[in-house]
Structure formats: structure tokens, C-alpha cells
Design goal:
This protein is an alpha+beta fold. It has ten helices and 17 strands. The chain has helices spanning 13-25, 86-94, 127-135, 137-155, 183-187, 192-203, 207-230, 240-251, 255-259, 261-272, and strands spanning 32-35, 38-49, 66-74, 103-104, 108-111, 117-126, 158-159, 179-182, 289-290, 294-299, 308-313, 323-328, 333-338, 344-345, 348-352, 367-371, 376-380. Strands 2, 3, 4, 5, 6 and 7 form a six-stranded mixed β-sheet that branches. A hairpin with a 4-residue loop joins strand 12 (323-328) and strand 13. Helix 3 (127-135) packs across helix 4. The longest helix is centred in the middle third of the chain and has 24 residues, at 207-230. The protein starts with 12 loop residues before the first helix and ends with a strand.
Length: 381
């Protein structure tokens, strides 16, 4: 979602009244709402690259400099139409059909404790969403990634994922600047498609395939319309007047010369080649590659609900729909296999779990989600 953000104007009161009158004449369609965000926490990292940043931006971004992202909240920021429910939302997140709207400000210069140059951005979310991430650690980690991506997209830079830290501060700087947002961006319905998908999935799981077929059919119709407007009917292979001339000339020839040409040659060819072996075309063999999984395990920061975090990365996997994950209680292990067997060979990965999960009396609680950008499956147990 894109919002128009600009700094607070320092014009005079008379000029403000003129602007207010112009806004009223347009029925407040372009009215600007100011909001004072409430700081929540700070994400700290480094600028990994800014090679693709256009020269038209206000100032260049230096590589390897620190960048701070102030995560804040305000009531004016819209929230998803589908309220957070882990059982409903996490499957939607895996398919990129649910996200928290984020208002991201332009990057600005600042200094760290040592007086060195650093950069600061603000990512503002709805107050209700802030309450969700305070209660669900997994959703908070997902939001952190969304904030990093939002800053990268807005400033055309790359932020390092290896130097992420969370300093003990609520904001970087003395104050988070006031945000100014167009009211039409705040009042529009942001997730109608997400709500339709959610309702459709409750009624019929195959509705996603139906929607995909409809989109493909629509693209084909548009393509045929474009081609039809510029395509003319091809002329006949043998024009009519030439065929008439040829028939007149043939009428003067002998009947034998009219009947013999092509049929006789084809029959003779078929007789002469009868004893020759016919080579059969073989179906082209498709060489499939093996899927390689890179597994990393570590403890979670908050062990109240989840005690183990497992990250599985594979460059051959491009979607969460290409994976199947299950738990085998007999051997106390996770089974992960790829489903994209049309391109790659099937690979079944067995992940043994620690003994703390082999208690048959306790039900194992686990959640997982897939991040497309990193080609990574993250599991919390």
C-alpha cells in the first residue's frame, strides 16, 4: 500500500485557511490527516547495498552505515479487514494473502552514540495491530521482515539480515516526526480481496484454483482482442483467377497427363521405402535435479509457548505450496518433502527433535510459515 507522506508545512495561518477552503471545495477528497505516532520499538541493522538507488533521490545512501527503523503505531492507520486469528491468518500469510498495512516515511540522516552518520526510517501500523504483535511472537517477527522490506522498497536499498538487532529503546531520535497522510488512502477498503479469499476458502478449498483459471481466461481474452484488432484474413493460397487459367490450360492436355503426377509418385515412394526401417522418435528425457535443504535450529527467545525455532532454506523451493510438513510421533521427528516433483526429484527430509518433545501425554504445539524472498520455511515448536 502506498501513502503520500510529506513534512508538516510551516506556512502562515492565512495560507492554511486558503488551503482549507480549496480542500472543502473538493469535498475533502484530498484532505490530509496529521497523526502523532506512538513509538513501540526499534530495529537496527546496516545498509548492505544502495547500487540501484536512483540519483533523483534527495541524497545518496552510503553502504555499511547503520540504519534504525522506528516501529510505531497510530489509530489513523488502517488495519487488515480480517482480524488476527492464528488458525486463519497464518495460512493466508504463507500464500501472500494477508499482511499488516505499514506507512513508511522517507529516510533521514542522524548520528549514533559515537557521532557517526546513520539513517532513520519510521514504520507506522494500526494500534490494534500493535496489540497483536505484543501477544504473538511469531507475528512480531513477520512484521519485522515486512518493515525491512517496506524501507527497502521505498528507498531502493538493501538492508542486511545478518546484522539485525533490537536496541533497548523505543525510538531513535528525540521525537518521531508527525505523519501527514491523504484521507482517501486511509478510507479506502484495503483488503477486499483478502476477505473474499477468506470467505471462499471456508466454503470451498478449490476456489483458489477457480480464481486462477478465471484470471488466465481473462488474460487470454484480452490477448485475443488485441490480436483480433490488428489481424487481417489471409489471402487464399491459390488465387481464383490463377486457378481458372490453369484449368483452361489443362483442358487442352491429354487426360493421362492430368491424372498421373502426384499420386503415382507417392505410391512409388511408399513401395520403394517399404523395407526401410522406420525410426521412432523417443520422448525427450527430462533430467531432474535434487532439492537441497539447509537446516538451522536454535532456541527461541521467549520459551513460554515455543521452545525451538527451525529454519529450512532451499533455493529450489519458490512457494509454501511446494512443501509438505508432518510430524511422526513414533520416532519423534518432523518429515518435510517437496511436492514440485515435475521439475525436481522428491526429497524427504527427516528432522529428529530433542527429547523434550517426545512426551506422549503432552500435545506438541507448532506453527510454520514460508518467506518467499528468502526461500525459507520457519517452524516454531
Amino acid at each position: 500500500m502506498n501513502f503520500l507522506l510529506r513534512p508538516i508545512s510551516t506556512t502562515s495561518k492565512s495560507h492554511d485557511r486558503i488551503i482549507d477552503n480549496q480542500i472543502n471545495e473538493k469535498n475533502n477528497t484530498n484532505a490530509i490527516i496529521s497523526t502523532e505516532p506512538t513509538p513501540l520499538f526499534v530495529i537496527k541493522s546496516k545498509v548492505q547495498s544502495s547500487d540501484n538507488r536512483p540519483n533523483t533521490f534527495t541524497f545518496p545512501i552510503l553502504q555499511d552505515k547503520k540504519i534504525f527503523i522506528n516501529v510505531c503505531c497510530a489509530d489513523e492507520i488502517p488495519k487488515p479487514d480480517v482480524d488476527f486469528n492464528p488458525n486463519i491468518v497464518y495460512p493466508l500469510i504463507m500464500n501472500n494473502k494477508w499482511e499488516i498495512p505499514i506507512v513508511t516515511t522517507s529516510i533521514r540522516n542522524d548520528t549514533d552514540k559515537k557521532g557517526n552518520l546513520c539513517y532513520v526510517c519510521d514504520c507506522c501500523i494500526n494500534t490494534a495491530c500493535a496489540d497483536w504483535i505484543s501477544k504473538d511472537l511469531q507475528l512480531r517477527e513477520i512484521l519485522n521482515e515486512w518493515c525491512l522490506e517496506s524501507c527497502e522498497l521505498r528507498e531502493v536499498i538493501e538492508i542486511s539480515r545478518d546484522n539485525i538487532a533490537f536496541p533497548k529503546m523505543k525510538k531513535k531520535g528525540n521525537k518521531i516526526p508527525t505523519l501527514e497522510i491523504l484521507s482517501e488512502d486511509l478510507t479506502q477498503n484495503l483488503n477486499i480481496q483478502g476477505q473474499q479469499i477468506l470467505n471462499a476458502e471456508k466454503d470451498d478449498p478449490s476456489s483458489i484454483l477457480t480464481m486462477k483459471r478465471d484470471l488466465l481466461r481473462k488474460e487470454e481474452e484480452e490477448t485475443s482482442t488485441l490480436l483480433g484488432s490488428n489481424t487481417e484474413e489471409l489471402p487464399p493460397l491459390f488465387p481464383t483467377h490463377k486457378r481458372n487459367i490453369a484449368s483452361t490450360d489443362d483442358a487442352n492436355k491429354d487426360n493421362k497427363s492430368k491424372k498421373n503426377p502426384l499420386i503415382q509418385e507417392i505410391n512409388q515412394l511408399s513401395i520403394n521405402d517399404k523395407d526401410r526401417p522406420v525410426k521412432k522418435l523417443k520422448n525427450p528425457t527430462i533430467i531432474k535435479e535434487d532439492v537441497i535443504f539447509d537446516v538451522q535450529m536454535r532456541k527461541t527467545k521467549n520459551t513460554d509457548v515455543y521452545k525451538l525455532r527451525i529454519e529450512i532454506k532451499s533455493d529450489q523451493i519458490t512457494s509454501g505450496l511446494d512443501l509438505s510438513l508432518s510430524y511422526e510421533p513414533k520416532n519423534n521427528q518432523l518429515l518435510l518433502k517437496n511436492l514440485n516433483t515435475q521439475i525436481f526429484n522428491e526429497n524427504i527430509l527427516k528432522i529428529p527433535l530433542p527429547n523434550i518433545f517426545d512426551n506422549k501425554d503432552n500435545k506438541i504445539i507448532w506453527k510454520c510459515f514460508y518467506t518467499k524472498k528468502d526461500h525459507k520455511l520457519i517452524i516454531f515448536i
